[in-house]
Amino acid sequence: MTGQGSVHSSTGGQGYDLVVVANRLPVDFSVDDDGAVDWQRSPGGLVSALEPVMQENEGAWVGWSGAPDLAHEPFEADGMMLVPVTLSASEIRKYYEGFSNDTLWPLYHDVIAPPAYHRQWWDAYRRVNQRFAEAAAAQAAPGAVVWVHDYQLQLVPKMLRELRPDLRIGFFDHIPFPPVELFQQLPWRRNILEGLLGADLIGFQRGGDASNFVRAVRRLTDHPTRGSVVSMEDADGNPGRRVRAAAFPISIDTQRFDDLARSPEVQARAKEIRADLGDPDVVMLGVDRLDYTKGIRHRIKAYGEILQDGRIDAAHTTLVQVASPSRENVGAYQELREHVEILVGRLNGEFGEIGHSAIHYLHHSYPPEEMAALYLAADVMLVTSLRDGMNLVAKEYIAARSDLDGVLVLSEFTGAADELAPGPLLVNPHDIDGMKDTIVAAAHLDPKEKRRRMRRLRRKVMGDDVAKWSKSFLGVLTAMPSRDTHV
Ligand code: F6P
């Protein structure tokens, strides 16, 4: 990376040598009654994944403020220049809630919910992607590295290349890339592929996602492919730029969770949580955004049947389910919330007693300190996603368990399962009977076996933190032959 780390004025200067482009800025804005704008740190996997890289590189981050119609000058926060992109209320509805989260999200997650295809949403998606591309082009120094993130911004690489052919452009897809048999439902499938192919390097969570992408390129475009490399021919059919698709499984700031969980305050809080739960023999934990991809209903159903069957003692077992609010204006999320809350109410009605609930359902987000305490308090961690790009909660749990206690039950349909097997107890969340057997086995796992598995998991996770992930992506991106090199 040229001149990495030098920061210049965002207006009129040379620009930044590293620019991250993501749907959200790593802060949330709020406007009070007097119109005064304030901001706080915002939670989320991508934020915790990228923050250390940005601070190290003193880069610029282009993203949406999270509020409608908010225009704000670029500003510095925690060692990063933050560059807000304004979205109107109608764009939030069509680009964010609509095309991103009611078209692409379900399509890319195995159509667990039916994707909706609306031309107006697509128009807004294109318009907003163009705005992000222009904002990034305005911040990038000559020859800078620009790293574009996720499914909300798949058209940005091509748009940005048209504006700034001098840039080195990387794209990382945080969610699964679907098999072409599903992807081809998308009326704008070719535009999306061409948009992504504007990048030099396209990163995915799993090898399977990268090959799904290359298969889609082969099937739906005329660009020649060889292994994981796509050749972009020029208008006269001459060979030109090469685009590489590859897996870069994301991780977390492992040391932070390890340190937090070792701190006396967090350990005391973990004990307090168990005491507040009535000191049950077994504490199970689920931590998810309230999203239909996470398999929360399947998990609660399996847990309820286990209690019903008497295979674990309802009086001495508790499931804590943290379900953080997410995308609350999207119909499928509203329906999910209703279903989950009905299930929780039913189970607590049936198996709860005064002073003891079968499920503690918490519709909130918590700071990392509280999360680390919850992880420490949990004997069994349940990650039962129906489809999940990676699942960072699984890695956080492992990083928090330096005591080697605790069992991870992990869905086969997560990117994490590809990386972590055979340490976790793997489940197919569609197979309720199979999942019940595994949850019961997890609750009774022999302590020696528990430690053996957790030791293996920690060996994998502690060495592969998010700093290594970003270094490895940026390392490959910057080492690629220049765009003029012919195939
Ligand atoms: O996993 C994809 C992702 O967009 C993450 O980057 C983000 O943390 C999470 O989903 C929450 O999404 P949203 O920005 O829609 O709240």
UniProtKB/TrEMBL annotation:
InterPro entries in the cross-refs: Glyco_trans_20
Superkingdom: Bacteria
Pfam families assigned to the protein according to its UniProt record, in alphabetical order: Glyco_transf_20
Similarity comment: family membership: Belongs to the glycosyltransferase 20 family.
Protein name: Alpha,alpha-trehalose-phosphate synthase [UDP-forming]
Lineage: Bacteria, Bacillati, Actinomycetota, Actinomycetes, Micrococcales
